[in-house]
Amino acid sequence: MKKQLVTLALGAALGLSASAAFADTLADVQAKGYLQCGVSPSTPGFAAPDANNNWAGLDVDFCRAMAAAIFDDPQAVRFTPLTSKERFTALSSGEIDVLSRTTTWTMSRDTNLGIDFAGVTFYDGQGFMVRKDLGVSSATELSGAAICIEAGTTTELNAADYFSSTGMEYNAVVFEDQDEVVKAYDDGRCDVFTTDSSALAAERLSLANPDENMILPEIISKEPLGPSVRQGDDLWFNITRWVYFALLESEELGITQANVDDMLGSDNPGVRRVLGVEGDFGTAIGLSNDWAYKVIKHVGNYNDIYERHVGANTPVGIERAGSVNDLWTRGGLMYAPPIR
Amino acid sequence: MTDTSFAYVRDEMLDEQPAPATSTGVIGWMKANLFSDIPNTIMTIVGVVFLYWFIPPIFNFLVTHAVFPWSVENTIDACRTEEAGACWIYVVDRFNFFIYGFYPAEEYWRVNICFLLGAVTLVPLLWPDLPYKGLSAIGFFVVLPVATFFLLNGGGFTGLAEVPTEKWGGLTITLIIATVGIVASLPIGIVLALGRRSHMPFVKYVCIAFIELWRAVPLITVLFMASIMLPLFLPEGTSIDKLLRALVGVSLFSAAYMAEVVRGGLQALPKGQYEAADALGLNYFKSMYLIILPQALKHSIPGIVNNFISLFKDTSLVSIVGLFDLLNTVQATTAQVEWKSPHQATTGYLFAAAMFWIFCFGMSRYSMYMERRLDTGHKE
Questions:
Q1: Quick check: A41 and B319 CB within 8 A?
Q2: Between helices B201-215 and B242-268, what is the axis angle to 10°?
Q3: Which residue of B has its CA nearest to A21?
Q4: In this structure, what CATH number is given to the domain that contains residue B256?
Q5: How many distinct structural domains can be found in chain B?
Q6: What span is annotated as the signal peptide, if there is one (chain A) (predicted)?
């Protein structure tokens, strides 16, 4: 009996590892009829319920883009809101097919957790907010400032690193949680408030007088956020990665959600390849040749997504032009290998 | 007999006089209750000062400075001013989300029918004077769960659009989890309690093992295991609905607690009751059903309802496994940038607290009513 149990357990363990190694996520997803996508429960601009109680945000739209590429239907996706603690377990246990949850790409996560990052959908980093009447226009002028910080976070460590490396003095005013930090800054207990720049813009609206505050241009830490998938399924990884690249490539070629149908008749061979008019690029990733067309048609290119959820005209209001999140052709970091 | 009249002797009864002003009315009440001695006087003064400090700002926050839909300026910009209080327009705008979660708006009627059905079948069960007890019991315990499942989920033969459980949320899911937990945990708990007192070693030790195992683990761990770890042990491709996993987890967890509460009630019964049941020649099930359990459960009402209330509040823990219960929907909307304002989060949490309070207070009052009703004179 005991021996049988051991055999059973061994068999189960082997079965698990085997299924992980040879998993065909694409076939599973196609059989289910929808993509299961892990998102953040509530991060403004990235994943949060919108006014009509639908999921919306940059991370959410990435999953919709994948669903569009696979099913020609951006609604063929179900969202699993995940806390930061459970997100990686949920991915490796197969609860979700792709994790698109403001997750910073770091070496330890990429190498230790059995996951692969497909790309960077948003370059985040820690920034500073100050009151306009302080008369400061750059973080280099912050010497001697009192800074409101959340305790025990990388934010606190990043600030310490930054100020010691630039040889400036500062007074840390430390609080236990983000809401307290914002409140303290609002009450004038410190001159500067620091956190990730994507959150900074949204938190500005919690202040009594948002317009009297400004975000400084300096970013003092690297937080590349991107979607990740389970390791060991190269086809699925390729799909995820090339959906991401297609969003950038189409923007670079000037294909937008609005003009994608006109672009089908374009003479530009690059455009024709992306939209599947020419060449045979979809079959290699198990999809139809017009997979990128479907993505752009239903969800738009990277710029469409960005401007819809986090751009300057949204409440989150993160200016893209000139930032690291702009295309490489305009001085940003967004760069995709060509589709050819 | 001489007719004498002494000036100092009254010859008629005095009219009743009102009690002295210092011992009746407001003053008397205050003297007796608020200023009876020096410590009480000090306490009263401190209390009044305390109220004076706290009530006006709270009232101002909730009412005077709050932004209501009928206020003159009822846009989000009014909430963003420096002197604005509670931002009620945000709660009103997001109200549907708090109640239904991600459920599609055109299908709300399905949830409403479930609420209605629940109320219609539950009221006769709770109100002793109403007839049709058996019918309502069947309605509540059999028809309601089945109807709720098919109505809310749709698809299949129902001809309704399918709404997967991921889209259920808000108060709906809170009530589903609480109701299932409450309804499932009491019978399971009773069985476990009886099992633990059984003379059959196998039954006894299985029950003890079950109770001690579940009681020794925090609910968060149970939910986390159920939602995240369980799929690791299941064959690839099998997936059990996340809500179902949470329901099973919550039910078994609270059943273990319930078992101990009921066991307390069983132990409070004098041995004579058991012996009397035996003497009447009743078999085990009859003696339990007719004699022991009615008394034991009556003793345990406060404990049982205590468990129900804590279970109701514990449902908010399912947010950590990504289910959108009432609290989680409130939390999710605090991130909605279009409603960002200084007091948005506070207002949202106040609303959630008020909802939880209404349900828990209702349960508590009902249990007190039940205790009085079932009180058959064992108390001094």
A1: yes
A2: 120
A3: B236
A4: 1.10.3720.10
A5: 2
A6: 1-23
